TrEMBL record:
Name listed for the protein in its UniProt record: Ribonucleoside-diphosphate reductase
Source taxon at top rank: Bacteria
Enzyme class: oxidoreductase
Family note: Belongs to the ribonucleoside diphosphate reductase large chain family.
InterPro entries in the record: NrdE_NrdA_C, RNR_1b_NrdE, RNR_lg_C, RNR_lsu_N, RNR_N, RNR_R1-su_N, Rrm1
MF annotations from Gene Ontology: ribonucleoside-diphosphate reductase activity, thioredoxin disulfide as acceptor
Length: 719
């Protein structure tokens, strides 16, 4: 029997039985039965067998499944030894969902789709060998980190490493558009190329002149950003990797741009088809000044990008609206329109209720904590990548007169549950940093020169985390409690410390730093001012206990690191970013990212299969009180946790807010009715801003159905 001929299998039925409480209890053992049945009925009969790993590799090379070059950097004896070591770990998936996701999405299959050609040990080994680039010790270290699920490369990296026919290893891209037709045309081509090779694309449209603005040499007026959005949406729809995936793009606009209301209206359900965007994600950059005007209930002026660039000689995105707002208001040469700040705030809340958009980038907050010389002007498809960009100047021949810098995202994630068990936290992080460094070093996006230039100059990476709620629940700590916030603070401090250590080591080894390092806050040492005080150490007995056995850097350690960085520099311009990491967290059997779980028994709709149920990792009678659904949680607790991590993350964190349309009584003290209102979202956005959170990803609203029987019922069950 092959994968294409699977007949009557039992694992889906067994998995679905988790959702049928027996005597008020969740039958979790059914998931274990489904897992066992999946290997018996699906994996084992269809996994191609070889006499040795050498035979397997030779076959995969001969049949053009994997590349030969990276394999030949190692002796066959070493590969055999590494493979044996990986299998000796006796790795076991902990849930049906984890095993199913790996074998459906990540395991290498035969060309006709009838056989599995690798197991998870093979996929881990190929990742380790590829990213170690011939370094045997690093290959061993990476293999150990991945098989013990302390490190998880991002989906493009984990999926493609070593394969002959593959996409790129990078996760997503960011490009900015300047206010001219050449730049618009080039950026559409860039979007086509980047969508073709994989990953989502974020695009900043803030520099584009508004609808009605004059066009030099023509009697007509500009059409604004909305038609350009439609062009990008069509581009992504067309460039979809032969229909394998929907092209994914996000467009960003500044909140003081005159087209902001038209921009937001494109996502409304009742929008005219001529302007409605169905597949593009929307994000807005929000300077501090907007929060001030909304708080004071004042009018706000929207400023013409065309006027600003003509008057001041810089693109709109690079103009400091907050610092020079009053100057713009007083300047008669700046075209402007007036709206009520709170009316615009309400429009944002209405759209977030209706669609979850727009993403919010608190752009001044991001730039205040940015240690790099330059300006952050936008984010990516998931709102966690925050890096400086420089605009390009393009002539009529579509040639670069000035080569700007755009962004590619090289991501990976720590598994908090397992990394906290690491015998050497620092060694683990250093190996992960090396793996991500290989991705940035070998990334070569020649189709979009500004992306290549940005990557070549910055050597940027983004190491993140997943499994926070899983870790807290398994240690009987409530998400959002003081202990959880303190734990998050120390965990991300350690990630920051060790990535800095290793980036400094690489810079010293190679004699290379990221471009313009000398003008960064790392170079003058001021970045380390808050750390050399020695205040970032565990304080409560509970958190001290959790970090017992792990090295905690003291003031003298930070001072030594500061001095080393000032002397030899850093290789990476950026190091940390926390992505939402969806499907990859299932394989790791932990909660996604650092946000709370949404359901104790999560229900997922899989294509052609139906519903699959996933019990929260570590769910038991013991832990169930600590697995509160995000929808039943005060979102200020989530914001507090993210704010603690933000303190140490040089880029951003993809933070989702989860609310019910009918909110639980007593959850928010300002509520006098249960129905969710626009005021609730406005309060939470302002709370996040005041806590120093850089970005808000989706706002997800859960509509309760009293007649629904399923995961909602399971949430209230007792194990």
């Amino acid at each position: 029997m092959s994968l294409k001929e699977l007949g009557d299998v039992s694992y889906f039925r067994l998995n679905n039985e988790i959702n049928r409480p027996v005597h008020g209890q969740i039958p979790l053992h059914k998931d274990k039965e489904a897992l066992k049945a999946f290997f018996k009925e699906n994996v084992k009969p269809n996994l191609r067998q070889f006499d040795s790993i050498t035979d397997k590799i030779n076959y995969l090379i001969e049949e053009d499944y994997i590349e030969e070059a990276f394999i030949r950097k190692y002796q066959p004896e070493f590969i055999e030894k590494l493979s044996a070591k990986l299998h000796a770990v006796d790795f076991r998936f902990k849930s049906f969902m984890a095993a199913y996701k790996f074998h459906q999405q990540y395991a290498l299959k035969s060309n006709d789709g009838t056989e599995y050609l690798e197991d998870i040990e093979d996929r881990v080994m190929f990742n380790a060998l590829y990213f170690a680039d011939g370094n045997e010790q690093l290959a061993e270290d990476l293999a150990e980190e991945m098989i013990n699920q302390r490190y998880q490369p991002a989906t493009p990296s984990f999926l493609n490493a070593g394969r002959s026919r593959r996409g790129e290893f990078v996760s997503c891209f960011l490009i900015s558009v300047t206010d001219d037709m050449n730049a618009i045309g080039r950026s559409i081509n860039s979007a086509l190329q980047l969508s073709r090779i994989g990953g989502g694309v974020g695009i900043s449209l803030s520099n584009l002149r508004e609808a009605g603005a004059p066009i030099k040499g023509f009697d007509g007026a500009a059409s604004g950003v909305v038609p350009v959005m439609k062009l990008f949406e069509d581009s992504f729809s067309y460039s979809n990797q032969l229909g394998q995936r929907q092209g994914a793009g996000a467009v960003y606009l500044d909140i003081f741009h005159p087209d902001i209301l038209a921009f937001l209206s494109t996502k409304k359900e009742n929008a005219d088809e001529k302007v409605r965007v169905k597949t593009l994600s929307l994000g807005i950059t929000v300077p501090d000044k907007f929060y001030e005007l909304a708080r004071k209930n004042e009018d706000m002026y929207l400023f013409s990008p065309y006027s600003i660039e003509r008057e001041y000689g810089v693109p709109y995105s690079y103009f400091d609206i907050t610092a020079r707002y009053d100057e713009l208001v007083a300047n008669p040469n700046i075209r402007k329109t007036k709206v009520k700040a709170r009316d615009l705030e309400t429009e944002i809340s209405k759209l977030q209720q209706e669609s979850g958009y727009p993403y919010i980038i608190n752009v001044d907050t991001a730039n205040r904590s940015n240690p790099i010389d330059g300006k952050i002007i936008m984010s990516n498809l998931c709102s966690e990548v925050l890096q400086i960009q420089k605009p390009s100047i393009i002539n009529d021949g579509q040639e670069y007169l000035t080569m700007g810098t755009d962004i590619s995202c090289n991501l990976g994630s720590t598994n908090i549950v397992n990394l906290m068990k690491s015998p050497d936290f620092g060694k683990s992080i250093k190996a992960m940093t090396r793996a991500l460094t290989f991705v940035t070093d070998t990334s070569n996006i020649t189709a979009v020169p500004s992306i290549k230039n940005g990557n070549d100059q910055g050597h940027t990476i983004g190491l993140g985390a997943m499994g926070l709620h899983s870790y807290l629940a398994q240690h009987h700590i409530q998400y959002g409690s003081p202990e959880s916030i303190e734990f998050t603070d120390i965990y991300f401090m350690l990630m920051n410390y060790w990535t800095l250590v290793e980036s400094n080591n690489i810079a010293r080894e190679r004699g290379v730093t990221f471009h313009n390092f000398e003008n960064s806050k790392y170079a003058d040492g001021t970045y380390f001012d808050k750390y050399v005080t020695g205040k970032y150490v565990p304080k409560s007995d509970r958190v001290k206990e959790l970090f017992d056995g792990h090295f905690i850097p003291q003031a003298k350690d930070w001072e030594a690191l500061r001095d080393a960085v000032m002397a030899d520099g850093l290789y990476h311009q950026n190091r940390l970013a926390v992505a939402p990491n969806g499907s990859i967290s299932y394989i790791n059997d932990v909660s996604a990212s650092i946000h709370p779980i949404t359901q104790r028994i999560e229900e997922r709709q899989e294509k052609k299969i139906g519903k699959i149920y996933y019990p929260a990792a570590g769910l038991s009678t013991d832990t169930i009180p600590y697995y509160t659904s995000a929808y039943d949680m005060d979102m200020r607790k989530v914001i507090d946790v993210y704010a603690a991590a933000t303190e140490h993350v040089d880029q951003g964190l993809s933070m989702t807010l989860f609310l019910r349309s009918e909110m639980p009584a007593g959850l928010y003290e300002w509520k006098t009715e249960s129905k969710q209102t626009t005021r609730d979202l406005s309060i939470l956005r302002n709370y996040a801003f005041n806590k120093g959170v850089k970005s808000i990803y989706y706002v997800r609203t859960f509509t309760d159905d009293g007649d629904e029987v399923g995961a909602n019922q399971c949430e209230s069950c007792v194990i």
